Request: fold
Amino acid sequence: MTRWLNEALYEPIRQSLRIEKVLFRGKSPYQKVVVFENAMVGRVLALDGIVQTSEKDEFVYHEMLTHLPMMAHGNVRRVLIIGGGDGGALREALRHKGVERAVMVEIDGMVVEQCAKLMPRLPGKAYRDKRTELIIGDGIDYVRKSKEQFDLIVVDSTDPIGPSEVLFTDEFYRHCRRLIRDGGVIVKQTGVPIFQGQELSDAVKRLRKIYRHAGAYVVAVPLYYGGFMALTWASEKTDISKTKVTLAAKRWAKAKIKSKYYTPEIQQAAFALPQFIKDLVD
Reply:
């Protein structure tokens, strides 16, 4: 009998992925964790029945979550990742030789363990990198207590339900503001606007109360059905939407990173928002 993952993130519609083989199925204190194989997209991570990432398309999301804000900033040395249990965002951030330290705080150790074991291409060598500190713990608790300063904070969380709900609050954003160095940037995922418009609007509204600059840019991640996904950003001093292609190209050439999705042209093009997303942001 053919088995399928019937993802029901949005109740009226469903996305189905055929399961060739279940590699892991478990329940952590926070969520149900499943890793399975699919003939078209390779190994897939699903949490509480919702697709998080696949081997086929993970690079799209992870490159845009890291390289774009890093090229806008120009001198990121210290990175904080909240969430990101699959390891992809950490892997991409560490490809920048200028990064001296990367702290990753993920609440669910089961996700980290199983992705490292069953989807090792995602973290790559990131956990063995001397610059990495991996903390299995609560992101809100970390930002409340930490006194470290970072140039980039990446919030690579699930949607604002369950353990990730607190990562979409004023309190969390204010603590992140305290941890960001002068000119630093915070970037977070805020769903697919055509279906999750309120999530995007709420995030931008909250961030604009705390930071001088805030907005969104878009990326099309194939397995996040619904078209464009919104990545929301904020900074006190750096308006990352105004980075010129020539400057991004100069910085990218210096970084000497071979990407699969990001380009200096996309650095600017990602901020060309469709009207319905502009309306949600503004």
